Each structure stands twice: as structure tokens, then as C-alpha cells.
Here is the input.
Amino acid sequence: MGSVATGATVRDIASLGIVGAGGAGFPLARKLAAQAEIQQAGLGPPIYLVNAAECEPLLHKDKEVARAFADQMFAGLRVAMQAVGAREGIVGVKAKYEDVIEILRAKAPANVRLHLMGNYYPAGDEFILVYDATRRVIPPGGLPLHVGCVVSNVETLVNLGRGRPVTRKYLTVAGAVANPVTIETPIGATLGEAVAAAGGATADRWAIRATCWAIRSSRTWRCAPKDSPASNCAWFWGPPSVASAICAR
Here is the structure.
């Protein structure tokens, strides 16, 4: 299966089983089918935002995927914009990543612009991205579509641009490891395998802590075994004295 045609329908996209790669795992086809809710905002055609700005300071996955697969990201963005009727696309990326910005500017379609963000936490939160790029305020408990916006993660759109079921995931492994790196892993790879791919932990004593977003804007912390899947949550490793010595997403 190759790239998705520009005229692909929401049903075509649903058949690929693509879900959001930013953490929540929301089915992409359901997001792209929300035209009625978007129209209720009364703000005209929606704006489609690409979130390439990580929240956590140790994460680099979004910018690295955008750097390596810009053509596929923009191909997916074109399909997604057509599906929701968007006329304008915005890629939010931190201004400090000048090399990534140069690549994206050279490849961006005429109806897509880059929005450069500051190096602050939590720049990658979709509420912050929507406001920073459009000055629209998402209401408490609301969604971007309530202010006429749709937001997708870089990796989500790369998966859409590739037009094939998702069987692999990109992760950043950073902090107290021998070789901090962004890796591509098969779905189901374990946390221990992800750490090993980065050369192993450099701390003598380390454990795994996991945070899952069970409810919007609510985090549940728990300890996790090293054989837990590495692709279903944001994960943090480290010795007890270092809260986020190693992190992967």
C-alpha cells in the first residue's frame, strides 16, 4: 500500500487504522469526520495545525520526524486538510530548530505556513499551540474544533502520508543513557528494549515510572516493568533522586 491519494475519503483513512501519535491515540478518521462540530464554531473553514513542538524538554521525536520525513508529513497534511475542508495549514515548531525550519520552509505548500514558537514549557500542548498560532482560546473542557481548528501530531500525518497501517512507532530515548537517540521501533517493543537501543542506562540504580493520560489534563503515575510496551504512554526512567533521568515517548 502506497501513499494516500489526495482525494481519499474519511472511510479510506479509517481503513488504515491510523490513530494520533501525540499520546492520546484518538482515531484520526473520527477527528477528520468532525466537520459538523467545526462548522458550529462559526469561524469559517477550519485551520489545520501540525504540532511539531514537544512539551517535555528532553523530547526530540517530532522535530526529528519532521526533518527526516517532511515530504510525507506534507502529503498527509494535504489529505487531512481536504478531508475537513481546511484552506490554511500551520506548522508549529520551536524557533531554535533553525535547520528543521529551513527544510520545512523549502517543502511547505503555498497554503501552509510555519509558526515559530518560543522555547518554553508547555509549547507543545495543543491548547497553547492553538492560541499561540491563531489567538483563539479553547474553552475549558473544550477541543480545538470548538474554535475552528484541527490539530495533528507530525508522526500522525507522516503515517497518513505513507498510506499504510501503522506497525511502527518513533520514540525519543534521552537523559541517563549512553547514547540519547530518536529511534523507530515496532509496535509492542518493550521499554527495556528501547533503553537498550540507546546504549543502556548509565545510572547504577534506576526504575521505570509511567504516566498515562487517563482523563484529559489528568495524569496517573505508576511504576511499570521493563517489559511494558514502549509505545502506549509517555514514560520516564531514572534513579529515585532524578525524576526524569531517562524519558521516552
